[in-house]
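Hi V.,

Quick status before I head out on leave. The structure for the redesign project is tokenized and pasted below; the design run finished overnight.
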């Protein structure tokens, strides 16, 4: 398999809310040597279901195998590779940044304004910033804020949905 064909795939899984459902999905990945780069799980509009959004890296064959294996799991209702779909795709970043002097405070405020982020907590020598955006936006913000001194950082995995205007929503097929 050629490494150059490896790319990140965004896979959305609709799964029943049952004890052990997530563990079975994780076991599937680990037992076959697949790596999950990010994983986000949350409730849907139906309280009996959860949506998992995961990012996995691989070639087309590997991702096809992942999707097939996921579909075989008893708790899994639907699986979609959203990679080449028109989609909404977001991550959440919360980052605590050093602001021990006026220059750093002003630079953080400038970057917050440019990126449409928010300062959500202030201490004597730090600002805590919240940013929601696509992966590239979050990565760019981190790179620009890093020289100021990141004290602590938490970042979610991606959440994604197919755009409704595409006429290809999750509810419309497996």
């Amino acid at each position: 398999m050629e490494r150059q064909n490896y790319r990140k795939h965004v896979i959305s899984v609709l799964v029943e809310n049952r004890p052990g459902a997530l563990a079975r999905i994780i076991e599937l990945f680990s037992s076959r040597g697949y790596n999950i780069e990010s994983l986000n799980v949350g409730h849907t509009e139906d309280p009996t279901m959860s949506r998992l959004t995961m990012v996995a890296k691989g070639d087309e064959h590997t991702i096809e195998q992942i999707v097939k294996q996921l579909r075989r799991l008893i708790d899994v209702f639907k699986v979609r590779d959203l990679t080449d779909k028109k989609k909404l795709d977001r991550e959440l970043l919360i980052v605590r940044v050093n602001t021990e002097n006026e220059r750093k405070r002003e630079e953080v405020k400038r970057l917050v304004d440019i990126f449409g982020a928010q300062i959500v907590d202030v201490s004597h020598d730090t600002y805590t910033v919240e940013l929601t955006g696509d992966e590239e936006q979050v990565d760019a913000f981190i790179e620009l804020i890093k020289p100021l001194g990141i004290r602590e950082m938490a970042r979610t995995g991606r959440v994604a949905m197919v755009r409704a205007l595409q006429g290809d929503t999750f509810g419309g097929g497996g």
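Above is the designed sequence. Strands lie at 7-16, 36-43, 49-58, 76-81, 87-98, 118-122, 126-133, 150-155, 159-162.

G. will cover questions while I'm gone.

Best,
W.
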